[in-house]
Amino acid sequence: MKEEPTINIGEVIDHDDGTSTITFEVNDAFEQMYLEDTGKKRITKRGLSNYIIDIIIKANNKQDGYDFNYEK
User: Fold this and answer.
1) Is pLDDT larger for residue 39 or for residue 1?
2) Distance between CA 35 and CA 1 in Å, rounded?
């Protein structure tokens, strides 16, 4: 069975200026999906962060098959 790409959201820190810092972990399948979707040869923090932000926006709007799956 093929592993599904997942993002696990860790800590969310809200700042006084209205921004937030979010920590997250991704699995190997997610990293592979990132490389395939972007055509990049390596993973960078900035590139992965921008990619995840795009996915979060799509999930919030339920676009392109993205949605949230809440687990406790």
Assistant:
1) 39
2) 21
